[in-house]
Amino acid sequence: MSAKYGSQAVCSPGRATTKTYNVLVVGYKGQGKSATVMKLSGDLTYEGKNDKNAHKSFILKEPSSCTVQVVDTPGLGSLSTSDRKILGRISKEARCLQHVDAILIVFKMGRIKSTQLKAVAQFRNIFGDNFLQKSIIVLTFADDIKQKNTTINEFIANSPETFQSIHKDCSERIWCVENSDWEDREEKQGELMELIKSVETVPYEVPDAERIFIDTDMKKWAKLQGKLFTM
């Protein structure tokens, strides 16, 4: 297992590790991936790794001993590195893991645009056609819901059709993070673990080789989602 950055931590100190959860965090640049990892790990100094994969672990207060390793991947849309290279790095990292228990796809609430939705089509190329069955949607800056006096269901109903389709293909698994509230970290960890455990038994293997990232594949994926992207 690759472990270039960060380290692992067991959930119950003094007990042998019985389970390791490997979680990949992916998304478009600027959506709040690193902030999400920072909140989960409790490391307020964490700022992410530009154009690199970063490993972070966090401790859960639950009866069983376990390790939760979160891999914070570089975001697509970088000005310094092509999406093709970034996808290659993410693919290589995923294939180095012994197993992938869940994939977190991060979107910034109130800012779901075609570029972020196209990123999901690109991830399909490296994770396979069925990767959404193993995925959880993460909505960052969910404080926006309270500020606008609305609900998550209303937000989803008013979101782009492609996003609604992705949400359904993820079996409506969604995890909201209020970035301004750091006092609920343990509670949010528990919520996330329930979602991770709901997909850990879903059969899934990362494709052995990287796929070719071409526009025709993105269009094909868009059609499967019921909406053709404007390329």
TrEMBL record:
<comment type="similarity">
    <text>Belongs to the TRAFAC class TrmE-Era-EngA-EngB-Septin-like GTPase superfamily. AIG1/Toc34/Toc159-like paraseptin GTPase family. IAN subfamily.</text>
</comment>
<dbReference type="InterPro" id="IPR006703">
    <property type="entry name" value="G_AIG1"/>
</dbReference>
<keyword id="KW-0342">GTP-binding</keyword>
<dbReference type="Pfam" id="PF04548">
    <property type="entry name" value="AIG1"/>
</dbReference>
<feature type="domain" description="AIG1-type G">
    <location>
        <begin position="18"/>
        <end position="222"/>
    </location>
</feature>
<dbReference type="GO" id="GO:0005525">
    <property type="term" value="F:GTP binding"/>
</dbReference>
<protein>
    <submittedName>
        <fullName>Immune-associated nucleotide-binding protein 11-like</fullName>
    </submittedName>
</protein>
<keyword id="KW-0547">Nucleotide-binding</keyword>
<dbReference type="InterPro" id="IPR045058">
    <property type="entry name" value="GIMA/IAN/Toc"/>
</dbReference>
<dbReference type="InterPro" id="IPR027417">
    <property type="entry name" value="P-loop_NTPase"/>
</dbReference>
